[in-house]
């Protein structure tokens, strides 16, 4: 494909994308295909001879689209939102064109420097404490990770290195193996599975702290575990607090947990993967109170801030804790500016070497929407979830299962788990809308997450009417 062909196809692709997004509501939100559907539809090997662009696009509609779950349909209420906006897609195209691998400052100075500035912009939107910003000439700063899972893992590994070095400095005879055996990390029993995985990958014990009646981690439960483990000779070193849990969007009490972490020399990492975007609104900023106690903080603009995947924003108070933990400088990656102390080599802040020019997406989105536009977007989603909540509350057959703070409503039919499993199956088999469940303690619960950029009140009303009809059918069939 040469440049003139690219110009033509590029314009066609933009039209295809705009048509797709505009028309996505008309597509069935969840596909009809069975596992393995695709292989028989395409050749077993790559073509020997070139094919045409038309043929590929025909196959996109014929083979790919029938197997797509349409996350951007206004009838999609599953998981959490994944962000999508036109300026982000355009910036991604530019990112592909520049195609640099920004592992060091020298590898593409703009790639590094725009990221640092965008992370400061975003940090200021959230009113993060100065200590997390790079521009203050302090020791903090932000980095874009690929996912919240990576951010948690990076924080855990950095904390592990930090505590190991401290202990070895005090007692040089201690081996790393002897220390690792005793390290213990904590998160609430509501934390995302990626936290448990970080513990597995990092080779340290991770203990679940029982959450309270509002699914929040509290000081007393953490303190209890801590005392027990210290008495058993273990070394507590790392705590993950979640702001906006995946199951029900509950909030750990960071104002309580934070001071304990500081006092006990435990690294506090805050995972606000979903909820973090809402903190750009002054009325939700209080949910972030206590972040001043954290060593690292992370959320996903690729969930709820209109920046397409992948873009996970992570800040640390002391960048040396990251760069000091992971630094290696082979000669082929060295460059003449690196020891000046003025520049950032982001490869030391993350697991992979390679990294895309992801900050372009933030820059485009922040400028096209403005902070006010982004705030309005968050508020609209919260408004829609409140609307859904009040519909549920008006039907005495249903109950709300957790406090609705942002864009997620957890609800169920009053009755058995089996009944609710049957309701969810009916909903997802009808394929008019798409939901996923969660467990809250021993209850099977349906999650209704406001997801699409184009979702409106009418979609919420329709979805609720549909759910009620299916519930009525289900309750009647049970009686017969
Ligand atoms: C979605 C979610 C994650 C995982 O995010 P990735 O970026 O896909 O790793 C982690 N924690 C919480 C609380 C989440 O909601």
TrEMBL record:
Signal peptide: none annotated. It is an enzyme of class 4 (lyase). One of its GO terms (molecular function) is enzyme binding. GO terms for cellular component: cytoplasm. Pathway: Catecholamine biosynthesis; dopamine biosynthesis; dopamine from L-tyrosine: step 2/2. Its EC number is 4.1.1.28. GO terms for biological process: amino acid metabolic process; carboxylic acid metabolic process; dopamine biosynthetic process; gene expression; kidney development; response to toxic substance; serotonin biosynthetic process. Gene3D superfamilies: Aspartate Aminotransferase, domain 1, dopa decarboxylase, N-terminal domain, Type I PLP-dependent aspartate aminotransferase-like (Major domain). CDD domains: DOPA_deC_like (cd06450). It comes from the Eukaryota. Keywords: Catecholamine biosynthesis, Decarboxylase, Lyase, Pyridoxal phosphate. The modification N6-(pyridoxal phosphate)lysine is found at residue 303. Its cofactor is pyridoxal 5'-phosphate. Coiled coil: none annotated. Homodimer. This is Aromatic-L-amino-acid decarboxylase. It comes from Loxodonta africana (African elephant).
């Amino acid at each position: 494909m040469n440049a003139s062909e690219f110009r033509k196809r590029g314009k066609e692709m933009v039209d295809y994308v705009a048509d797709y997004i505009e028309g996505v509501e008309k597509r069935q939100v969840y596909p009809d295909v069975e596992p393995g559907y695709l292989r028989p539809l395409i050749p077993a090997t790559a073509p020997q001879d070139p094919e045409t662009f038309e043929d590929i696009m025909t196959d996109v509609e014929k083979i790919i689209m029938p197997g797509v779950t349409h996350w951007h349909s206004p009838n999609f209420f599953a998981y959490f939102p994944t962000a999508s906006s036109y300026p982000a897609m355009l910036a991604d195209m530019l990112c592909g064109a520049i195609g640099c691998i920004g592992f060091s400052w020298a590898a593409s100075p703009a790639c590094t420097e725009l990221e640092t500035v965008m992370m400061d912009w975003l940090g200021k939107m959230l009113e993060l404490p100065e200590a997390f910003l790079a521009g203050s000439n302090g020791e903090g700063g932000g980095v874009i990770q690929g996912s919240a899972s990576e951010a948690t893992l990076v924080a855990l590994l950095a904390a592990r290195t930090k505590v190991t070095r401290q202990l070895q400095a005090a007692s040089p005879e201690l081996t790393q193996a002897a220390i690792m055996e005793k390290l213990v990390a904590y998160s609430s029993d509501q934390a995302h599975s990626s936290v448990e995985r970080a513990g597995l990958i990092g080779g340290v014990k991770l203990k679940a702290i029982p959450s309270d009646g509002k699914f929040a981690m509290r000081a007393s439960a953490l303190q209890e575990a801590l005392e027990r483990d210290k008495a058993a000779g273990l070394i507590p070193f790392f705590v993950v607090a979640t702001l906006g849990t995946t199951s029900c969007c509950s909030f750990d009490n960071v104002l309580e947990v934070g001071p304990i972490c500081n006092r006990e020399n435990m690294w506090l990492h805050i995972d606000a993967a979903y909820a973090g975007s809402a903190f750009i609104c002054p009325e939700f900023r209080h949910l972030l109170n206590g972040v001043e106690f954290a060593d690292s903080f992370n959320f996903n603009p690729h969930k709820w801030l209109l920046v397409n995947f992948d873009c996970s924003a992570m800040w640390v108070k002391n960048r040396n804790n990251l760069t000091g933990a992971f630094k290696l400088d082979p000669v082929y990656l060295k460059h003449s500016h690196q020891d000046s102390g003025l520049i950032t080599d982001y490869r030391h802040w993350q697991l992979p070497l390679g990294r895309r020019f992801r900050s372009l997406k933030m820059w485009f989105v922040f400028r096209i929407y403005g902070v006010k536009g982004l705030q309005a977007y968050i508020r609209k989603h919260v408004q829609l979830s409140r609307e859904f909540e009040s519909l549920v509350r008006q039907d005495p057959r249903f109950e709300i299962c957790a406090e609705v703070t942002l864009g997620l409503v957890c609800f169920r039919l009053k009755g058995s788990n089996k009944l609710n499993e049957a309701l969810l199956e009916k909903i997802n088999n009808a394929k008019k809308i798409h939901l996923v469940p969660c467990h809250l303690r021993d209850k099977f619960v349906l999650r209704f997450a406001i997801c699409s950029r184009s979702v409106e009140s009418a979609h919420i009303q329709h979805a609720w009417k549909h759910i009620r009809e299916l519930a009525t059918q289900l309750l009647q069939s049970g009686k017969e």
